[in-house]
Every structure is written in structure tokens, then in C-alpha cells.
Q: What sequence folds into this?
């Protein structure tokens, strides 16, 4: 099972990490946009289809069409951890290679949105102070890396639970023997 976790986790991590790395390098001078977040999470969801494929393969090929819920969850969570670590490493590489001030650009975007909504000066000042504290914290890799991990890992957990729940039923997408 460890071999499958590493194989599918590496594939998922690269599917999620490489586009994020490429987009970060290509758009380093532009502040983050709402569509960028949507594309990022869609890419993560696509990457985690490897969990479904790994569980289905284990059920159909190795276990003769049957898999219990908890072993399937274990496989999916293992893949999620490996993929999330690779994603974090890709983000760290993107930050190092591009030299972007991600939190600075993110903060500016949030503050401008609040100004456009007509927020009070006190609310904007409080947000600016909060963003300054976030920038200070984010400069520390021991803060930034776990935060980045929590961006992607919950999606892997969700895909794992759904996949394990569906695939424990041997009648759901059974192996078609020719």
C-alpha cells in the first residue's frame, strides 16, 4: 500500500503543484484575483481524482472487487498527505523563484475591496493592522508551510471520504471483464 500511496500522491502533488508554480512565476507582478483561487481549487480537485483511481484499483485489481471503508480511507489520506507536502514544496519554490510578496499583494487587494464597499476608516485600519500581522507571521516558514498545507489537505480528505464511501459498494462502477 505504501508504494501506491507514494505513486498516486506524487502524481496528485505534481498535478496540483506544477500549474500553481507556473502561474505564480508567470503572473508574479500581478495581484491575486478571484479567478486564480477558483482555478487553484479546481486543479486541486482534479489532482485528487488520483485518490478515487487508487482506491478503485485496489478494490478491483488487488481485492477482487471488494474494499472496506477504513482501508480505503487510509489509502486516500496517505495520498492526500504526500500530495499536500509536494504542493507545499512547489509553493515554497514558487515564492523563492519569483520573489513575490504574496501577502502584500493579497493585503492590498483585500483593503481595496473594503474601501470599494465603503467600509469605515476604523474598519480599514483594523484590517490593515491584521494584514500587517499576517505578513509578519507569513514571513516565517514554520507558519507559512502548515498554512499552505491546510489549503489543499482538506480537499484530499473530502475526496477520500466520498471515494471510500462510494467504492465500498462493489456494485458501484464494477470492473468490466472482457
A:
Amino acid at each position: 500500500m505504501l508504494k501506491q500511496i507514494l505513486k498516486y500522491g506524487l502524481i496528485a502533488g505534481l498535478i496540483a503543484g506544477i500549474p500553481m508554480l507556473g502561474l505564480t512565476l508567470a503572473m508574479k507582478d500581478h495581484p491575486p484575483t478571484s479567478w486564480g483561487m477558483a482555478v487553484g481549487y479546481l486543479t486541486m480537485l482534479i489532482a485528487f481524482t488520483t485518490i478515487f483511481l487508487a482506491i478503485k484499483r485496489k478494490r478491483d485489481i488487488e481485492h477482487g472487487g471488494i474494499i472496506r471503508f477504513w482501508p480505503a480511507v487510509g489509502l486516500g489520506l496517505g495520498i492526500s498527505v504526500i500530495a499536500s507536502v509536494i504542493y507545499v514544496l512547489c509553493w515554497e519554490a514558487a515564492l523563492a523563484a519569483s520573489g513575490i510578496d504574496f501577502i502584500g499583494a493579497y493585503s492590498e487587494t483585500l483593503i481595496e475591496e473594503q474601501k470599494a464597499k465603503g467600509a469605515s476608516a476604523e474598519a480599514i485600519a483594523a484590517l490593515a493592522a491584521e494584514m500587517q500581522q499576517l505578513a509578519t507571521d507569513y514571513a516565517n516558514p514554520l507558519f507559512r508551510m502548515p498554512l499552505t498545507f491546510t489549503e489543499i489537505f482538506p480537499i484530499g480528505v473530502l475526496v477520500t471520504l466520498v471515494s471510500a464511501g462510494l467504492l465500498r459498494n462493489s456494485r458501484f462502477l464494477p470492473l468490466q471483464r472482457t
Residues 17 and 166 are 27 Å apart (CA to CA). Helices lie at 2-26, 34-47, 49-62, 69-98, 102-116, 121-138, 141-167.
